[in-house]
C-alpha cells in the first residue's frame, strides 16, 4: 500500500510543487500565464491530502484514542494544518504566506517513502500459529474393522485406532495399543534422544516414530491435544507481551506536545501585541514546521540499512521493536538441543575389551547398525565412516525396540544395545562406562558371540561456536541461562562444559515460557534463543525471541529475530546491530529534532523584537539540510561487519563487565 501510494503521490506532487506560487517565489521563477494555473496546486494538493495522507490520518485517530500520540499524530497534525491553511490561502481567507501546498505535497511523499522503506525491510513471515498446524500429518491411517482407511486428522474421533508407520508423524494424542518404537519427541519436549514407547505408553500429536510401526488409540483430538496447548500458549504470549514504545514514536510524541504548546504560546503572545493576523500566520507556520522531513526518514533509513547489513551477516529482522530491545538485554536464555548443541547424537567414546581394539569394535558395531534407521545407529555408522573404517556386509538383521539390534557380521553374532540387552545376557556394564553415564551420554554395549566386547558412548555434541558465544556474552556482562527437556545429568554436563550460569532441566513446553516469565519477574530483560516447536511459547514470551533459522517454521514465526545459520555466535551480531542501530537512530533524531528545537522558536517570532522572523523559505532550506545529514549519517551503518567471527571479536575487545554470576544452578522442573 505504501509503495503504491508513494509512486502515485510522487507523480501528483511534481506538478503540485512546480506550479505553486509560493514555491515559484522561493526559487525565483515565473509561472506560465495559463488560465487556471493557480488552481492546479489546490486541486492536486487536496487529492494528495485526502488520498495519500489517509494512512497517517487514520493512524493518528488510533493513537489519539489510545492516548499515545506518536509519529502518526505528528504527521497527521502537520498535513492537516498545512491543508487547512493552504486551502484558506487559496480561497482568500488567510494570508498568502500560508500557501503551503508544495510543503504539504513533499511532506506526504517523503513520509510515504519512509514508511515504505521501513515496512519493506521488516516484511513479516508466516504466522507461528499457522506453522504449528503444519506439524500434523496431512493424512492419518484409521483402522476400521479389517480395513485401513486414509482420513484427515481433523476427522479422527476419541477411541479411533490409527497406524503410525516408521518415519511417520503421530496424528493425534493417544495410547500405544500395539507395537513399540523409539519416538522422536524433541519438537515437543526438547529431549534430544528418541524415547521408547511401547504398549500402554502415551504418544503426542506431531511426534515421529523413528524405527517401527505403532498402533495408537486416540485419546485427545482438536483443542485437547498437547500441540493445541502449545498453540494457545504462543497466542497468549504474543497477545500479552508488553512492547515498549519505539524510539521514533517517543520522539514524535514529544515533538507533538512541543509544537502544540509552542503554537499556543505564539498565538497568545502575538494577539497580546495586537496583531491577530500575524498570530494566525505564526501559529500555523509553527505547526507545519514541527513535522520535519528528516524525522520521517531518520528511523526508516537506519532500519532499512541495518536490516540489509544484518541479512548479509546471517541475521534476519522481523520485528523492529525486538531489535531495539536487544541492546538492553541482560540475560540470554538458550535452548540446548539444536542451539548450543547440534541436536543429533555423535560418538563421544569407544572402548573395547576381550581382545577387541576400539576401531575393530566400532567397525563391527557399524556393520550391525547399518540397516537401522535409529538416530543412534546412524551416529555409529557416521563415526565409522569419518574414521575411514570399512564396515563389512551384515546378514540376518533384526531390531527390537528398547533392546537393540542383532546381525551376523563376518561369521560373528553381533548385538548392539542398551541395559535391556545386557540384562538378557546376564551381564554387567563395563566399569569404563560409568563416567559416560554420569556425563549424560547414552551408553550402548557391543556383544559379540554372547560376550561383552566393548561399549560406545553417544551424546548430543556441543558446538565449538557455543563456547565462544558464552565467553563473549560474559565479556559483555550478560548472564547466560540454558533450558532443556533433557535430564539433569545431561544438562549439568553441557552447562559445565560451556560455563553456563544457570540451567533449567527437564522442562516441558509450558514450563519454558514460565521460566522466561520467572526470569522477567526477577527483573531481567530476556532474549530467548531456540529452534523447536517446544521453544515457540518462550520465544513469544521473551522481550526478544531469536530463532535458529535451521529450526522449525513455528520457532521462526514466533521470533522477532531469525538467525539464518545455526551459529549461536550470531546472537552477538544481533546485540552489536541493536546497539549500533540505536546509536544511529538517536543521532538522527537529534538532527531531526534539533531542526525543530531551533526552527520552531524562530518561526514563532521569538526574535521579532530585533526585526527577524524566520521566513518559510529559510525554514525549507534548513529542513532539506537536516534530511541530507540524516541520510548521510545512516549510510555509515554500511561499514558494520556483522559476521559471527567479527561480532565475537568485537565483544571480546569490549571493556570487561562483571555480570552478577553465581555458581552453576541447576533446576529440575520435576522437583517440588
TrEMBL record:
One CC-aspect GO term: plasma membrane
A UniProt-annotated Pfam family: E1-E2_ATPase
SUPFAM superfamilies assigned: Calcium ATPase, transduction domain A (SSF81653), Calcium ATPase, transmembrane domain M (SSF81665), HAD-like (SSF56784)
Membrane topology: Multi-pass membrane protein
Domain P-type ATPase A, first and last residues per copy: 135-234
Coiled coil: none
MF terms (GO), sorted A to Z: ATP binding; ATP hydrolysis activity; copper ion binding; P-type divalent copper transporter activity
Domain of life: Bacteria
Biological process according to GO: copper ion homeostasis
Parts of the chain that traverse the membrane: 40-61, 73-94, 100-117, 251-273, 279-303, 589-608, 614-634
Keywords, ordered alphabetically: ATP-binding, Cell membrane, Copper, Copper transport, Ion transport, Membrane, Metal-binding, Nucleotide-binding, Translocase, Transmembrane, Transmembrane helix, Transport
Major location category of this protein: membrane
UniProt-annotated location(s): Cell membrane
Gene3D superfamilies reported in the protein's UniProt record: Calcium-transporting ATPase, cytoplasmic domain N (3.40.1110.10), Calcium-transporting ATPase, cytoplasmic transduction domain A (2.70.150.10), HAD superfamily/HAD-like (3.40.50.1000)
PANTHER family: ATP7, ISOFORM B, P-TYPE CU(+) TRANSPORTER
Stated family: Belongs to the cation transport ATPase (P-type) (TC 3.A.3) family. Type IB subfamily.
Protein name: Cu2+-exporting ATPase
Organism expressing this protein natively: Georgenia satyanarayanai
